[in-house]
């Protein structure tokens, strides 16, 4: 029998470091006296010598009430047997900083529920008056999210570009959650005339299949052969529609960005030099869905509406060839893709339009007061409204 926790070469160091970082961030944002419940991989435990010091440091400002492993069999009907760990932390001073309650073993559901029921009530402990008096907060009333008016068409619409029409259909979850793990996928709220199904079978989890997406109103502008020739499948066109819908709205509030471009402060609406941010859209499709082609489709929609500057960020320089492949597949030109790596840091980018491609490591580059980020911003211009794609977004840790 193996020990409860042994060194495993299969644990990715970046993922391992991310776990305590996320929990530490949550603890910092948790109000004094609040309770934090975390679900992590089972190896992240106070009984694991590699992580005990991390838990001891947390005991300087918090108290671990429970850390218990969850048997992977609990999740078997949902398609995984991965062992996990539940840790409950109250943000109150620990009575004995060296005492960390921990059950190294993994337990089944009845035992887990019995343990959780025995947890103490949340502590009534509060900050002292001295600490409370030291906290000064400026409350800014945020306006509601605003929508950018979406024109029916644009005056300079080229002859081969059309407004993508589709039918919005009613949808409701009538069958309920079944024992099947996955269901065949097709767009739930829209039907696009003559759009082809995806060339490979798509599926989604049964739980996600019960969630209805919102009824969209945004209509992309695309070359008419995109649908006629099936260059984007029905599911990929759905992504272009929902991305455009998100980008048509601003986030609540106004903000000031400082000269370092690192710090953003919430300010009152109408304050001088305040800016607003558009909503982003997250694409979480798996392998085989054609995420690069969908990114190209979103950029093409903007391109056809006159927004001829875009930024495509990815994890490696070699992926520029994939970007070129996907862009050209939709009728674009290889020359439209600009490799920022070929332009010297600090030099102006000598293109009036195009898709600027760079890696996350390039984006972080700076030297002698010059930075790639400022170089990109200067190229985009103050009136930039094009698409910014964070491909392989898990690498966007700056």
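^ structure tokens above, recovered residues below v
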């Amino acid at each position: 029998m193996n020990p409860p926790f042994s060194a495993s070469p299969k644990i990715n160091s970046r993922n391992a470091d991310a776990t305590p970082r996320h929990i530490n961030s949550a603890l910092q944002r948790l109000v004094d006296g609040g309770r934090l419940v975390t679900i992590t991989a089972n190896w992240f435990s106070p009984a694991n010598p590699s992580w005990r010091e991390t838990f001891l440091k947390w005991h300087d400002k918090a108290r671990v009430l429970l850390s218990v492993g969850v048997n992977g069999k609990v999740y078997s009907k949902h398609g995984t047997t991965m062992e996990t760990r539940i840790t409950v932390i109250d943000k109150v001073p620990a009575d004995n900083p060296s005492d960390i309650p921990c059950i190294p073993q993994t337990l089944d559901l009845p035992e887990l529920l019995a343990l959780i029921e025995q947890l103490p009530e949340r502590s009534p402990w509060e900050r002292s008056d001295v600490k409370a008096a030291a906290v000064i907060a400026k409350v800014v009333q945020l306006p509601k999210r605003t929508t950018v008016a979406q024109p029916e068409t644009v005056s300079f619409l080229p002859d081969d570009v059309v407004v993508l029409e589709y039918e919005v259909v009613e949808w409701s979850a009538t069958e309920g959650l079944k024992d099947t793990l996955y269901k065949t996928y097709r767009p739930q709220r829209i039907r696009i005339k003559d759009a082809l199904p995806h060339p490979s079978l798509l599926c989604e989890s049964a739980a996600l299949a019960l969630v209805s997406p919102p009824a969209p109103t945004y209509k992309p502008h695309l070359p008419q052969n995109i649908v006629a020739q099936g260059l984007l499948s029905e599911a990929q066109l759905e992504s272009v529609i929902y991305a455009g819908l998100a980008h048509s709205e601003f986030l609540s509030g106004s903000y000031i960005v400082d000269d370092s471009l690192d710090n953003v402060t919430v300010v009152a609406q109408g304050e001088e030099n305040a800016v607003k941010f558009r909503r982003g859209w997250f694409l979480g499709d798996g392998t085989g869905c054609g995420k690069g082609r969908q990114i190209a489709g979103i950029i093409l929609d903007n391109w056809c509406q006159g927004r001829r500057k875009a930024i495509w960020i990815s994890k490696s320089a070699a992926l520029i060839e994939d970007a070129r492949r996907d862009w050209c597949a939709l009728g674009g030109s290889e020359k439209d893709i600009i490799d920022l790596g070929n332009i010297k840091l600090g030099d102006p980018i000598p293109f009036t339009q195009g898709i600027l491609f760079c890696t996350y490591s390039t984006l972080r580059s700076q030297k002698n007061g010059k930075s790639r980020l400022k170089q990109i911003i200067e190229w985009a211009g103050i009136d930039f409204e094009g698409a910014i794609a964070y491909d392989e977004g898990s690498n966007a840790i700056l």
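The chain has three domains: 13-129, 140-303, 307-398.
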